Amino acid sequence: MLRSLILSATLAVCGAAHAQTAPSASEIASYKGLHLAAHEGRVEEINRLIAAGTDLNMRDGAGRTPAHVAAFASHDNVVAALANGGADMNALDNQLYDVLTIAAVANDPVLVSLAIALGNKPDLITSIYEGTALIAAAHLGHHDVVARLVAGGAPLDHVNNLDWTALIEAVVLGDGGSDHIKTVQILVEAGADKTIGDRDGVTPLQHAQARGYSDIIKLLM
Fold first, then answer.
1. CATH (one of 1.10.10.60, 1.25.40.20, 2.60.40.1120, 3.90.180.10) for 1-19+125-221
2. Which of 94, 112, 133, 146 is the most buried (most CB within 10 A)?
3. Residue range(s) occupied by CATH 1.25.40.20 in the chain
């Protein structure tokens, strides 16, 4: 149990080192063509470039496709135009993130639903932790996103390379507040397996008990 608590505390502190990275000002200044149009939300230019046969899956220096750039800029109509034109909605950037996980981390429920409707797979393995969009959203307590991912068929019990499920992350990397309580509730009601423990066999309930998260304990009992 002690090792599990130390690991969760360490991840909470240093996890930002592996967070998604939106295009920087210097990167944006270098953009042209599809990447620039995606960042600026210019759908007509996107459609013109699609008609001209431009490669919709071209990459910037960080491996971002125009769809990734549009997702970071919350341009849903651009994401839709690119997908409808044939862009790969399951492409991963150099940090192993897809459009769906970008939307999940940004707490953008509308884009989450749109990405799934456009073919972005909710069971896609993403990030250096070999997780999913659902695990990322549960970690952050983005319960509206969690609900949409669950409805879209995201795997409830995927175990990442930390040996954590979405339910475990909602507890060990959450703050026990209302957002994470609701996240746990959605996962439990959807049928997430409460018995899956971490690499030390510590269950979500035991983690909640160790942290004194009384409302979450009630949901997991």
1. 1.25.40.20
2. 133
3. 1-19+125-221, 21-94
30 sits in which H/E element: helix 25-30
Q: DSSP assignment, residue 22?
A: P
Tell me the pLDDT tens digit for each residue of 146-193.
999 999 999 999 999 999 999 999 999 999 999 999 999 999 999 999
Sign of CA dihedral 211, 17, 152, 69: positive
Rounded distance between C-alpha atoms, residue 94 and residue 91, angstroms: 10
CA atoms within 13 A on the CB side of 187: 36
Q: Which two tokens stand for residue 46?
A: 């996107």
CA dist., res. 151 & res. 192, Å (int): 13
> What pTM was estimated for this model as a whole?
0.91
Tokens of 101: 């996980």
Distance between CA 176 and CA 211 in Å, rounded? 8
Q: How many helices and strands (H and E) does the chain possess? A: 14, 0
Size (the chain), residues: 221
